[in-house]
Records
---
Amino acid sequence: MTQPDVFDQKVLDQNIRDLQEWLRKAWQQLADPSLTAFSRRELRNQMKQCNADLRVQLQAASKRMLVQPAASGKTFAKPALRILA
């Protein structure tokens, strides 16, 4: 992996952690009984959007993980076998 790839991976990982943390806090806030119906609705809408963003980030991370082993240069080939008598 090149240096920009490592940087992109770190940014991607940080985005995923940030979105997960935001969702965790939103669930805690949603449990607050003092929220109005409008506030709950708005929070749920924001949570749906955040969940969609998180799904996109996770898909990007999984694609990167699938491509990463191929880029590492390790390939598996059939070994040359010899018959010993």
---
Amino acid sequence: MNIASTDIAAEGALGIGLAVVGLVLVALLIGAFALGVRSKRREPPRPRPEEQPRLPAEGAVHEIREHREPDEVPRGDERLSPHQMPGGGNVSSRGSSFKGRRRWDEGRSGSFGSGGSG
């Protein structure tokens, strides 16, 4: 037995194996590309310029800043479930008479912790 011929045969088998793996990967990539093209063709077409959304006749809608006062939670002896709350559990609110901007006061809660002295 010649060790050199065994090494050459092993390298040849390894080279053939790598070539087969490479061909399989290329085939998978081509198949994925074909599948993507096929699924893209099934999508509805893009909207035409005349089908694009337009601004309302009265113009753009702007942000409204206002203070809202929440409704009080009904007091009772039993715990209420969300479906028993007024408004079906959705928080309802009414406009506030306070029109100023709320400011942070010294000694009150801030953005970190309780706002205490530490």
---
Amino acid sequence: MNDHDSRNDSSSERSRASSGAPGTPPDGGKRKRPDGPGGGILMGRPFGVPVYVAPSWFLVAALITWVFGDQLNRVLPELGGLNYLVSLFFAVAFYASVLVHELAHTVAALHYKLPVRRIQLQFFGGSSEIEKESETPGREFVIAFVGPLLSLVLAGIFYLGMRAVEPGTVPGVLLAGLMISNLIVAAFNLLPGLPLDGGRMLRAVVWKITGKPMSGTVAAAWVGRALAVAVLIGLPLFTHSGALGTPGQEIGGVQSVTDALLAAILAAIIWTGAGNSLRSARLREHLPELAARTLTRRAVPVEADTPLSEALRRANEAGARALVVVDGQGSPTALVREAAIVGVPQHRRPWVAVGGLAQELTDGMRIPADLVGESLLEHLRTTPATEYLVVEDTGAIYGVLSTADVERAFVAAMAR
């Protein structure tokens, strides 16, 4: 199944257009994670975006192969053992359709200059991880809608293909299965609750009406939770009602347990995704509180050959908590690392120069004092370091920003 969720991650708002996988909360400006760990097997980079297949996909592919193989055996018994090979092809083709769905989200996001971290195919579908939120409700609506739209287009293509081949043949059965599966994907994702694509569309509509993204998220998240309850209770009853074209069944037996388990998994995915979307939206309200100017530690300038004990004495007198190494003209050249200071025993500090404990400044380690919210977190994510030199527009030293201070402030914002 496919959905479209939104979340913060590290330094920025991260929107995630996904197939049945909920969003997760942000990591608060920690170092940028590589694409590989946790991503699964890299399959390619369409449009420059890495596509991964998670290990859980193989479990689902095996399940689809088994279930579709049994159905194929009833329709085409002459295939014999080949029916499972055909059904494996169906599983791969179905997930290729899911990939097209995700690529639709990705292309739309890239069109609006929103970076996409990766696409991942996994249990119950896939996810397109978009690293920033849409700037307008209209763009949010378009990015969410193109996924189900492409699934409907694929269903139409498979329908035309099915009409062009002889019924009751392997191509006919495969095309019919792909048509139906893409219709189900589109219909499921159009349900108006987060984290599904329909939930993103509902969020965009409420956002447009109220002018408040948070109002849209709250409305779509609670509809998503209601939808999760409906799936948990209604799906097993629906499958036993005969509404799918099969004779009604009494509730009980292995089939009932399987239906209930499937409903519980889907409901858990929707409920968790809705909750994560709501938490991420509430966190965004507090992002402006993360300001470089308010989180920066006051610093004193010292020359590289200054003994550590003398530098710390000057810092204590000035009420400062950081040291900046400057050259003879007073220009900053390095930052004295807090961890390095702690590692020097008290009795050795008069004999250790601060220059030996300092990290040379790079361009990425200089940040403007006016950076706030997502812009601040984005800078820290793209240029990982333990400390940063905060400067005014004039180039004057304002102080030193510690990553640890930002992370603590971020965690506090999450707690609220």
